């Protein structure tokens, strides 16, 4: 279950993904499969090859791309999430969701 974002943020992310951009959406998240994760960042792009190439620089494998919806994305959690957000200079995501406080 996702929360902590508004409809405009979700719409903006979806539009960027559909336009072939690498787009990021961080939100609070609860999932019994990942009891230690309280946030997730979705790094998405409609162009699977572009998304896979982007992910490769961070050690992400193409087969990890979630393709179940019309918005292909990697789910980033934990230290990898913080590492990538930092390298992508998305400090506002880190501050907003207090990711450094863990």
From TrEMBL:
An example Gene Ontology molecular-function term: NAD+ synthase activity
Keyword presence, Ligase: yes
EC number annotated for this UniProt entry: 6.3.1.5
Domain of life: Bacteria
Assigned keywords, A-Z: Ligase
Protein name: NAD(+) synthase
Species this chain originates from: Bacillus sonorensis
Lineage: Bacteria, Bacillati, Bacillota, Bacilli, Bacillales
